[in-house]
Amino acid sequence: MILTNNDFKIDVTSEIGSLRSLLIHSPDSGLGKVVPSKAQDWLFEDIVHLDTMRKNEYDYYVKLLLYFLDPDKIKGKLQQIDDDADRLFFKPDNIAFHSSNKVIEIQTLLADILQQYDIREKLTASVCAIESCNYRLQEQLINTDPVELAKIFISGSLNNEEMIFAPIPNLIFSRDIGIAVNNHMLLNKPAKKARFRETLLARYIFFNHPLFAAYSNNILEIPETAQHFLRPGEDSLEKTTLEGGDVMMVSPQHLIIGCSERTSISGANEAIKLLFDNDVVKKVTVVKIPHKRDYMHIDTVFTQVKRDTWVLLRSLAVGEAPLEEQEPISWFADKKQKDRAEIVQFEKDKKPRLFGCIEDLLADISENDLQSKTKTKFIYSGNSTFPFDAREQWTDSCNLLAIKEGVVLGYDRNDKTVEAFKQNGFAIIRVNELLQKFETGELDPQEMTDTLILMPSAELSRARGGFHCMSMPLLREKVV
């Protein structure tokens, strides 16, 4: 049965409005087949233990999202769900799957569109071309059951055993394949070959699934630059790339695009032209951060918590130290080598505006775009204490998902960052305790305020992405 939702809308105007629907992908069997020799090629720092990642970590994320976004799917059933050793509630190919049309699973949408023979034929041919499959395998795949074929396209394996092409383990980071900008979808252009198949699948889903039919004219694809095929080499810095972790919809008319290890200046340039030409937003700010694996995307450096509150890595976000604070040695340092951001804001037909540092930009968003009446507050990774600031930023202390304003999800391992949240007046609660309170009615998700929800993270954090990465919001309530 094809997933439907008569009330479905795409409309995201902020990073903090109450979340009403999003796209996710639960860890699949392909993640459990990442081998050490290919881990870095497939953009993983390490191999992970799949069963632990699923049952002890990611499943909590799904349950939490359902209590906030689609409580009828879970309320009163928590014990039954937890008692099922086979986890059928979390498996998209099983009849007992939750099938929420608000917490939407990518694999479900893929299986839906593959029911159409012409789509199945075209997409199979495209995947086989990317993966260099032989003709007989292509014919076999075309005639495979759609639900099973969706699993194969994602995991890379036939019958969960025989690997026929590489998995796409990064699909759990659903934000990177596309971003909702107001009522438009901006699809990505990934920097690494390991993510090409994700982009292909996403493109077919958004253009062919009935859920998105009303938005077919609002899907934006970033073009390559003219005569891009004449560029020398395969890894030219001029490649046109853009990933969703570098895109933030911070207010109804303002988008941030990061230039990073994964998003190029050319990608940002093409995106800005596309957004302005289609009158999607009026203002785009480009934040260029050092091209380092430490940072990867801008959402590993900062995310928004409330209208007036952000969490960020202080060492990259502040301006130069005042002269009176500088030691003599700083006068002889190579300024070009210092980790700092370059920030330029563009408005259509206006002169670009420069910002001195990330903190200045975020304060301007809070106080001018979002009309905050209070001074902007910053919560720092590792409580701005060396070496915990860098350690905890590496394990995604700055990569938080606001499920509603002031209620954010983060990893339980970032102890010093948790202290910083406490010092800024936030309640701290572990997800397993919170779910029990939701189930008994002791707490109402819609009435929560100023809370950091701690999520288990032993395996997920080793995949190098937090909950901001693991979410593609499609609908948020407007911030008023």
TrEMBL record:
Pathway(s) it belongs to: Amino-acid degradation; L-arginine degradation via ADI pathway; carbamoyl phosphate from L-arginine: step 1/2
Enzyme Commission code: 3.5.3.6
Gene3D superfamilies given in the database record: Arginine deiminase (1.10.3930.10), L-arginine/glycine Amidinotransferase, Chain A (3.75.10.10)
Record key words, sorted: Hydrolase
The organism's place on the tree of life at top rank: Bacteria
InterPro entries in UniProt: Arg_deiminase
Catalyzed reaction equations: L-arginine + H2O = L-citrulline + NH4(+)
Similarity section: Belongs to the arginine deiminase family.
This protein's name: arginine deiminase
Annotated source species: Mucilaginibacter sabulilitoris
